[in-house]
## 1
Amino acid sequence: MANLTWKSMALKIDDNTGSLTTVTNWVNSASLEGAMETLEDTSLNDEEHSYLSGLAGATIPINGWVNTTTEGIFGPLVGNRTTATKTVEFYNGVKYYNGEVWVTEVSFSGDAGSLQTFSANCTFDGAVTRTSTSS
């Protein structure tokens, strides 16, 4: 099997109407980062450290270019508290990862002579669903 490139990736997120919208064409960097806490339960009588599995979670940090679609999704989240999560779908070329996320750390930036960019972190709230088909 051939190795996959960035061209295999895709990203969808709820737009301002709640519809799952493809933003792949305006994203220049995205990654799916999973983590699990480990809890040390070493006792005084142990000879080696021992651990238990703790809470698990995942985040999708993204960067891209600002246009009416991306500004409509991320702009309302700048400086405003929200009580609603967004649905996200991340495709790595093999599997789809879906779930509800809290969008945090939204940033817009730009320099003279460059395109305006945005960045955000999408932190999963609860389980991440991994499937073979798009939602």
## 2
Amino acid sequence: MRSRVSAGFGAVAIALSVWLPACGDCEDETAVAEKFLETPTNLSCQSNADCEVVSTGCGHPARSSCGQAQLNHPAAASSQWKRLQADLVNCDNKCEQCGAALLPTCSNGLCGGAP
């Protein structure tokens, strides 16, 4: 009986050790989001009305502030961004975000200005 319990515990410990390094630091999720947030086609705009503020969750990709970033409407509505956004939100749900509220801004033809 004892060997079954030990074997079962060992399998659980191995499974957890594989899972634990992948959670909490958000580095991989942030790196992928940064590429998306720097792509000019995801930022192109004619006016402030073309831009929207999106949540970046607990990740802190470049071009974000206080858990928020700017994208144009098609990029913000894309399935790719929705997946990236979910990954950012889920990677570490114990973070604090400041209370700043970004306003959608088109500057020099890019939402949020030049990368």
